[in-house]
């Protein structure tokens, strides 16, 4: 039967292992995203105010695409945020 000390030790080891795994995965993902941004595969994150301004500009002039490739995205069933 497990003693309270062994249960606490198990939970502590689990929490530490999870934290280390999260830290490692976060660093790997951050390096990958930075590499993709440098190669032009991923856009830089925008603030919500910039997104609202872009949507308002697109609504004011529906004929012109708001960003590069926007005309290609329309009409293909994709959700454009």
TrEMBL record:
<keyword id="KW-0812">Transmembrane</keyword>
<feature type="compositionally biased region" description="Low complexity">
    <location>
        <begin position="55"/>
        <end position="68"/>
    </location>
</feature>
<keyword id="KW-1133">Transmembrane helix</keyword>
<feature type="region of interest" description="Disordered">
    <location>
        <begin position="53"/>
        <end position="81"/>
    </location>
</feature>
<keyword id="KW-0472">Membrane</keyword>
<protein>
    <submittedName>
        <fullName>Uncharacterized protein</fullName>
    </submittedName>
</protein>
<feature type="transmembrane region" description="Helical">
    <location>
        <begin position="6"/>
        <end position="25"/>
    </location>
</feature>
């Amino acid at each position: 039967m497990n003693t309270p000390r062994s249960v606490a030790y198990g939970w502590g080891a689990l929490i530490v292992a999870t934290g280390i795994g999260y830290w490692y995965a976060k660093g790997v993902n951050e390096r990958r995203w930075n590499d993709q941004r440098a190669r032009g595969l991923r856009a830089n994150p925008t603030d919500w105010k910039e997104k609202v301004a872009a949507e308002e500009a697109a609504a004011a002039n529906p004929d012109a695409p708001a960003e590069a490739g926007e005309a290609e995205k329309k009409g293909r069933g994709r959700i454009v945020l």
